[in-house]
Amino acid sequence: MTDKATSLSKQGFFETQEALREFGVSDARTLRKWATKGKLDRVHHAGKVFFKRVSSAPVSAPPKNRSTTKMFKIAKNSSRPTYSYNDETNTYNVFIKGEGTFYEIAAETFREMKEDYSEEGSYLSIAEMAAKYCQTQKWVADFVKSVGWTHKEDIFTDEEILDLSPSALLEKKVLSERKALKEKMDKAGRNRLAKDAEKWNALQESLVEPIGEILSNISPSYSVPKIEFPKVDGKKYICMVTPTDLHYGKYASSLESDVPWDRDICEKLLLKKTAEILAELKRYGAPEYFVVGVGSDWMHIDNFQMVTTKGTPTSRQVY
Known about the structure:
Elements: H1 3-10, E1 14-15, H2 16-23, H3 28-36, E2 40-45, E3 48-53, E4 83-86, E5 91-96, E6 101-106, H4 107-117, H5 126-132, H6 137-147, H7 158-163, H8 166-218, E7 239-241, H9 263-281, E8 290-292
Parallel strand pairs: 7-8
Antiparallel strand pairs: 1-3, 2-3, 4-5, 5-6
């Protein structure tokens, strides 16, 4: 029991369950009605409600079918509550210590804040609550302290527990869990996107841009000659060229092979055969477009380990 709860007990206040036994009733609504009629004092502390018999005011069950006003009034004594609920206006009055004043908050907003702060709901931190409700962190911290909330509490206010049916409470609980799950998934998605963006930016700054700058300074400038094709009456066609098995990067010395091979020989042979193909095409006129197939051992090695895909060692040109 906290010091404040101990103090309330010494002043004659009873927590709700104890008050039910003390005053001989079975429904907390009866306690609320007596408090409304001034027969009981009511105090909120640490998420609990305490009741005390008002001296000289007899306590008896109210007549049936008699309408009463549900309104929590701020007690005019040293143990006045730090927040109260007004059923007529459907608002809460909450004392903000840092500003020394009460704030009137719509019940819908108050209950949403309870759901957001509970670990069974959105489980927002003080900072996240402040951002969502456009208040300072100090204001939210004072608010949470005044209403006595903790993250471990459920999502319901005292009034909801008293007024809603079990099925209505269960329905709200289910909706709250769905909302919390969606928020967690959205947050996880945003975090993942942020991390991916950071990785991409780091890659751009540390690798892509430096390599691009280096290549722009060392890459030779090529001038590609334009080929003139004669006009030939005939069918339209497409030229597909698939030079395979170039083995660019392979090395074979003339001392050990009848067909020497290196990168220079490979390049000259590729250009020579390409020129022969283009010369042959002039008989048919200009094709609509070219299709160039690549792959099939264009390169002699497949990785930085200088081996094939299956790991076969290769003879290669290293300069």
